[in-house]
Amino acid sequence: MLIKVVIIGPESTGKSTLCEMLAQHFDTEWCPEFAREYLMTNGTDYEYEDLLTIAKGQVALEEEYSQHAVYRSSFTADEKKQILGQQSTVDSQLLFLDTDMQVMKVWSQYVFNDCHTWILNRIAERPYDLYLLCKPDLPWVKDELREYPDEKPRQELYHIYRDILIQQHVPWMEISGDYDERLQKAVMAVNQLIS
Question: Residue 139 gets which letter from DSSP?
Fold first, then answer.
């Protein structure tokens, strides 16, 4: 069974970095954010309908990376060492996700005051095992795709995500501090999940 850990939070809170660090630590896969590739290719002047295209692309990307993670974990420890040149640190099938449909829902509602039914249906049918909520306590880093450099929207979005997590049944942990502290807290949360 594949264990899926979703990293969410406002822009510029170290989500992609944390995903990459966790995947490296646990010797597994991480699924990037499809929106980044889509907006880099199609431009940042997106419309409501683009969010449905992005959501569908994200789900497809997640499925692809899920298959990679399951395939990779199907090898024995000796086979992994022979193929990867290192010993795997965990026997569980782990996948770290840079985003999910909850993020698409929040994005849609925050920007357009609406959300496609397709996205809401995916939220209802796609299970996850742990959420890591990145707090906006890292300095803002300018990026051509980021929209909300001001503190007020960052805090608003953080509280929206926090409220969603409080109201659902999947375990979650707030991740704060510098990059090393974030990694330590996230590793502890994942280890609690898989132990």
Answer: P
Residue 138 pLDDT grade (very low, low, confident, very high; cuts 50, 70, 90) = confident
Residue 143's alpha-carbon distances to 47, 118, 176, in angstroms, are 20, 29, 21
DSSP state of 78: H
Fill in the amino acid letter for 98. Answer: D
Question: Residue 24: phi, psi to the nearest 5?
Answer: -65, -45
pLDDT tens digits for 68-102?
A: 888 876 765 555 555 445 544 445 689 999 999 99
Is the pTM for the entire model greater than 0.85?
Answer: yes
Q: What sign does the CA torsion over 147, 149, 155, 158 have? A: positive
Tokens (6 digits) for 86? 């290192």
Least confident of 30-39, 143-152, 158-167: 143-152
Helix (H) or strand (E) holding 191: helix 179-194
**Do 16 and 184 meet the contact criterion of CB atoms below 8 Å apart?**
no
Sequence letter at residue 10: P
What is the structure's pLDDT at 122? Answer: 98
Q: How far is CA 21 from CA 27, 107, 185, 194, in A?
A: 10, 25, 12, 17
